[in-house]
Amino acid sequence: MKEIYLAGGCFWGMQKYFDQFDGVAETEVGYANGPAEAPSYQEVCASSGHAETLRIGYDPKKISLTQLLDFYFLVIDPLSYNRQGGDTGVQYRTGIYYTDEADLPEIRTVYERKEKKAGAPLAVELKPLQNFFSAEEYHQKYLEKNPGGYCHIPPRMMHLRDGAGAGQEEA
Fold first, then answer.
1. 8-state DSSP, 124
2. Mind listing the pLDDT tens digit of every residue in the chain (171 residues)?
3. Residue 92: inside a domain
4. Which end of the chain is more exposed for a tag (fewer CB within 10 A), N or C?
5. Count of domains in the chain?
6. Which of 7, 10, 32, 69 is catalytic?
7. Strands in the chain per DSSP E
8. Does the reported pTM lie above 0.90?
């Protein structure tokens, strides 16, 4: 089992989106790469410096890190700074936070490919994970519990299941 931490705007949608893919064994929403103290949701919303982030535990025999990152880039605006959809603020920044230095070459390959395609520097942070604090229980699997909840990710993206079409635009 491996893990990667992805910040992509509101973490509710990111969790529902990634939960659909075979090989994603577990997900957890939380707050990453801010000050060392565990924040509350209210503190994060008041600019604590943390990013709403999804921890993904995955089986690399079933899904590669490259596939996960290609799926990630399908649902974010990589040029948008501190904003995704209607959500604005530092907690909605985008970021790829890794815990295993050995993953960095693969991450950089995807990142550079996306940057070249965009034709501009990406606003996506690429950093080692400094810290991660689990969000309050009511945030975990929020869109499963509240199907009408807001999400910047289009509903059609929540039903890719087998990942058909992911990465195809760059083949």
1. -
2. 999 999 999 999 999 999 999 999 999 999 999 998 999 999 999 999 999 999 999 999 999 999 999 999 999 999 999 999 999 999 999 999 999 999 999 999 999 999 999 999 999 999 999 999 999 999 999 999 998 898 999 999 998 874 444 444 443
3. yes
4. C
5. 1
6. 10
7. 2-8, 24-32, 51-58, 83-84, 87-88, 94-98, 125-128, 132-134
8. yes
Q: Are 117 and 74 contacting, i.e. CB atoms less than 8 angstroms apart?
A: no
**CATH code where residue 44 lies:** 3.30.1060.10
Contact in structure between 18 and 4 (CB atoms under 8 Å): no
Distance in Å from the first CA to the final CA of the chain: 27
| 128 closest CA partner among 95, 150, 155, 164 | 95
Question: Catalytic site residue 45?
Answer: no
At residue 31, the 3 state secondary structure works out as strand
* Residue at 171 is within a domain: no
Listed residue (14, 47, 19) closest to 30, CA to CA: 14
Do the domain assignments include residue 91? yes
Q: Are strands 24-32 and 132-134 parallel, antiparallel or unpaired?
A: antiparallel
The DSSP letter of residue 120 is S
